Amino acid sequence: METLPSLLRRPDPGALSAAQLEQLRKFKIQTRIANEKYLRTHKEVEWLISGFFREIFLKRPDNILEFAADYFTDPRLPSKIHMQLIKDKKVA
After folding, report:
1. Is residue 39 part of a domain?
2. What region holds the RIIa domain (predicted)?
3. How far apart are CA 80 and CA 6, in angstroms?
4. pLDDT at 3
5. Domain total for the chain?
């Protein structure tokens, strides 16, 4: 059986090269920037998520998956979000 130090000295065929790591780092940064831009231009996403969490914290359901399914399939949800967007525009 090989010792740990000898295992650590062998190259890992699945490891990324320095160039690949740099490319991955840049990709992650670009993805975060794109996500941030998207969220800033789509306030409805913010209202969906914040409303969902607010309801969870207020109601503290035992079955979160069932609660989430009910919350996001509520036929009144689109109008709630729409009304919130209208209120948000009036304040701004």
Report:
1. yes
2. 51-73
3. 61
4. 64
5. 1
Taking only the tens place, the pLDDT of each residue in 26-80 is: 999 999 999 999 999 998 998 999 999 999 999 999 999 999 999 999 999 999 9
pLDDT at residue 2, as a whole number: 59
Structural domain containing residue 47? 29-91
Query: Dmax over Cα atoms in the chain, in whole Å?
Result: 71
Query: Does 65 map to a domain?
Result: yes
Q: Does 72 reside within a domain?
A: yes
- CA-nearest of 53, 47, 46, 59 to 84 is 47
The one-letter amino acid code at 68 reads: A
Query: Residue 61 domain-assigned?
Result: yes
DSSP 28-81: HHHHHHHHHHHHHH-HHHHHHHHHHHHHHHHH--S-HHHHHHHHHT-TTHHHHH
